[in-house]
Amino acid sequence: MPECDLFAAIVDQFGPPAGAVKATPKEIDRYRDRLPSALLDFWVQHGWGSWKDGRTWLCDPALLEPIVRAIFEGDAELAPDDITAIAYNAFGEVLFWHRTRRSITYTAPLGTVTIANPESYADIETGRPTSQAFTIGADIFGPISSSEAPFVDENGKDLFPRAMRRLGPLAPGEIYGFAPALSMGGAAVIANVVRAPIREHLTMLVAIEPPVLYDYVMTPDSFGRLDPLRPLGKPR
After folding, report:
1. pLDDT digits over 81-127, tens only?
2. What share of the chain is helix, strand, coil (3-state, %, to 5)?
3. In the chain, which ranges are continuous DSSP H helix?
4. What domains sit in the chain, N to C, each tagged with a CATH number?
5. Among 26, 2, 20, 5, which Cα is nearest to 137's?
6. DSSP 236
7. Per-residue CA distances from 230 to 15, 77, 85, 97 (Å)
8. Given CA atoms 52, 53, 54, 60 in this order, what sign does their dihedral have?
9. What is the pLDDT of residues 153-172, one digit of tens each?
10. Is the pTM value of this prediction over 0.70?
11. 14 phi/psi in degrees, rounded to 5
């Protein structure tokens, strides 16, 4: 697929973010050496907000800076100063951008962290690495355009529409979480879904059980699997 302006494609296909708040020049300057200019330009033109009734959110990184610190502070390989939170979904899957490794995903309900394979950043026709603008655009465009559920219940059914009917639409900075948390033996059922501030809820989850870095391994069935590598943060 030839490179294109995926940020323009987001607006063309899905419209600008709902409830958008545009970044100030001071906020832009803070992240100029940490994020691709294509994302900063989008912040200026369209701002932070949501798509598809709150399934996907583009956020002010300051909102989740404490989560970045809580997960990566003291880690021997991944320094929090290199990592910026840029987006999240309705159930707390957070997309981070690493200034050299590019995208990192934290799936908060499960406590898993994965780093995108470098091969996913190669043009399938030329084999050359894609630009940072295209890569970060793809990282954001993908979840917005996807038909997959943000999170499913124990029977594989989409929890989002039921959570929205039961608890109402999410406000900026909120997610649907589980109480009790899945890491404490809670079940992924609609009766356990709650609305919660994302920063406070994720802080609690990280404190309960430090996230674990996983590696994606290809398997003959083509689905692949995730293998645990190590806990993140300070050695324990």
Report:
1. 999 999 999 999 999 999 988 899 999 999 999 998 766 666 666 76
2. 35, 25, 40
3. 6-14, 25-30, 37-45, 61-72, 132-145, 160-167, 198-208
4. 6-145 (3.40.1580)
5. 5
6. -
7. 40, 11, 21, 20
8. positive
9. 999 999 999 999 999 999 99
10. yes
11. -125, -5
